[in-house]
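A note from the maintainers: we've had questions about how concatenated examples are separated. There is no special marker in the raw files; a new sequence line simply starts the next protein. For clarity in this README we add a label.
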Amino acid sequence: MNAGSGRKQADETRAVLEGELGATGRRFTMCVVDDPRHLSTTAQTACAQGGVLVGAGGDGTLCAVAQEAYALGCPFAVLPRDTFNYFSRDHGIPADLEQSIRLLLDAHAYLVQVGFVNGRMFLVNASLGLYPKLLEDREVYKQQFGRSRLVALWSAGLHNAAPSPAFASAYRV
C-alpha cells in the first residue's frame, strides 16, 4: 500500500484485512511503502515465500506493484483504495474493501494486457499532449480541496473552460 495514495486509509485497510483474512486463517503481511525503493524488497519477499503480491491503492500504485510482480514473475492481485480505480473497475473488482478481499480469496489467475513505454509499465493508459497537464492541474486542486470525484470533475471543467495560453495561441482560428 502506498502511504501517500488515496485517502491515507492504511489503518482501515489493515483492520479489514486482519478481520477478513484472519477469519479464513490466511497469512499476510501488509507493507505500507513510503519509498518506491522499498517496494522492490517487499515484492522479492512475497515472491520468495510463494505468495501473491497485492497492490492496495489507486491506479498509479497498482501500476508500480504490477511492474515489480511482472519483473519477478510473481502473481499480482488488486485491492482498490483510491478515488477512480479504473483498472479495478475494468476487471470487475469491487471498490468495497470487504467485497474485494473476499473476491481475492476466491480468485483465479488470468492474464491481463499491459503496455510499456520506455521500459515503464502502464495498466490503464499512457498519455501524451494536454492530458498529462490536466492530471497535473487536478493533483494541485486535490491537494487544496481534497480527493473526490467532484474535485476531479471541477478541475477538468476549469481546464477545458480556460485553455492555457500556449494551447490558445497554438490553435487560433
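[label: protein 2]
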Amino acid sequence: MSESARSLLNRRGLRLRRELGQNFLTDARLADRLADLAGVQEGDQVIEVGTGLGVLTRALAKRAARVISVEIDSGLVLALKEEALLPDHVELVHADALDLDWSALIAGLDSPVRVVANLPYSAATPLLRILLDQRDRLEDWSVMVQREVARRCVSRCGQPDYGSFAVLHALTVDAQVQQDLGPGSFFPPPKVHSSFLRVWPRRTPLLRSDELLWVERVIRAAFAKRRKTILNTLRAAGFVAREERSVLESVLAQVEIDPSARAESIDPTRLLALARALRTVTDKEPN
C-alpha cells in the first residue's frame, strides 16, 4: 500500500470494511493500464462503481469527458470530497450500486457510455447481471472481478465453469479477460486472484428484447441440478405438471436435445432453442 493511501486512511480515521469487499487499487500505473484496456477515450461518459481511494477514478478522468463514480462508503465519500482528491469533472455519488436506477442514470448521459469498475467481490455477480439488462444502452463494461467469476462469464460448453451465467453472457454479449492480477495488486491483498473482464454487447443479438427473463429462467432451471439430466431438471422446475413428462420429451426432441443429456453438455444456442420451444407449450413459469 502506498504511503499516501495509508496516510489518508489514518488521517481520516477510516477502517476498511470487510462486508463491503474493500480491496483497493493503489498503483497509479496499473490504473492507467486498466483504463487503456477498457478503451476509455476522449468524449466518453464513464460510470465507475467503487471509487475507493480514487486511483482508478483519476486514471479514467484523464481520458474521459465525464466520470460518475459511485461509492457506498460514506467515510470515503466525505474524505474524497473534503480533500478534493478527484478532478472537477468527476461526480462522486454516495450510493449502493445495486440500488441505483441504472436506466435513468445512463439515459441522463451522452453516448458513448462505458462502465469501468473494481467491483466488490460480494456484489460482482448481481452487478454483472444488472449490466446485462443495460447492454443496449452501453458501449461496453470493463470490470475487475474474482478470477472464478470471470471464468463463469467466459466459459464455453464442456468447460468446468460452464453454467447458466456463461450461457446468459454467450447469448447477449462478447466477453474477454484482458488481464489477470494477483492479490498483491490490491490493499488489503485478497485471498483470491482477480481478472479484468471487458464485455461488449453482441453486434448480432441472439435474443429478442422480451426474451431475456424467460430464457434466464429456463437456463437457471436447466443448471439447477448439475448431476441430473435435462429432462429431470425441467420436470423439477415445474414448467409442466410432473405427470406430463411426454410434453417435455416432445419439446426436447423438437430441438434435438437428448433427454438424458446434462445442461453442461448443451451449447447456448441449443438452450435458447429449448427455451423458445418450451415457451410455446406452457405459459407457466418455474418456481
